[in-house]
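# nightly structure sweep
# worker-07 picked up a monomer target from the shared queue
# config: single-sequence mode, recycle default, output format = structure tokens
# input follows
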Amino acid sequence: MKKKISRIVISVILCVFIGFLSSIATQSSITTWYPTLVKPSFTPPNWIFGPVWGVLYVLMGVAAGIVWSKGLYHKWVKTALYHFGFQLLLNAAWSILFFGLQNPFVALIDIIALFVLLLFTIKWFTVVNSTAAYLLIPYIIWVAFATALNFGIWQLN
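# output follows
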């Protein structure tokens, strides 16, 4: 049990750290470039993004820690975590592409790939531990919403 908790804690720290690094890419554009964009009517207020992503990164970390605790010797665990790691990279890349490079189209391609890879991640997490997979459901719902938002911003600008 101690090993499981430590793996969950490490995974949460890693996910939150990736989220923190991603937020650095947004800092320069969130008050300058982003406010100048035409946004869809369903765009939430800016203050909602930080808390939502904070919760999602914690849920992602708990889910990954649960899967990791099943043992890296198992090929299904490795496969699930490879998918998770790659989707986490695409997640971080989105902030760089959208806010850092100020390129909504390339960010849209990235977030679509993220969504597809997240579907595979959930599939593999389900094979290893269904609770871990369920913890990713809020994340995929938010990514679907963010994809629609990204698409809308790209279309309007």
